Amino acid sequence: MTTPLGQELRRLRKERGLRLEDVANGTGITLQYLSMLEKGARKSVSFEIMADISRFYGVPLDYFAAFLKKEDSEPLTDVEIMLWQAINEKVRDEIYYKKGRSLKEIFSKMLK
């Protein structure tokens, strides 16, 4: 049984005529992990992995948020939404516009 995120990842891969091996090589994520994501066997996905997938497919990280929300049974709290928006903004600046500090530096300051 797959998830909305798994279905979309598979659709993106197939649309581009790629094999799981191609995505694994392009993202640095193991073939097994990618397969588990597409099949829905992996319920939680780290931010770093989603950033790698986003970069590989050239899709904004925000795009995947809609598919992750479909999987959540509980709505996000205001704090979680604020954190998600802040992280997306920083990642967009760092990944797409090549400016800003490293993500480790940003997270360490946010957690203090």
Q: How would a crystallographer describe the biggest sheet?
A: none
Q: Topology as H/E string?
A: HHHHHHH
Radius of gyration: 15 Å
Overall pLDDT metric: 80
- Which overall shape is indicated by the principal axes computed on the Cα atoms? globular
Give the structural class.
Answer: mainly alpha
Query: Distance between the terminal alpha carbons, to the nearest Å?
Result: 39 Å
Share of residues in strands: under 5%
Number of strands: 0
Q: Which percent bin holds the helix content?
A: over 70%
Low-confidence stretches: none
What is the helix tally? 7
Could you explain the architecture of this structure?
With 112 residues, the chain is mainly α. It contains seven helices and no strands. Helix 1 crosses helix 3 (31-39). The protein starts with a helix and ends with a helix. 13% of the residues are buried.
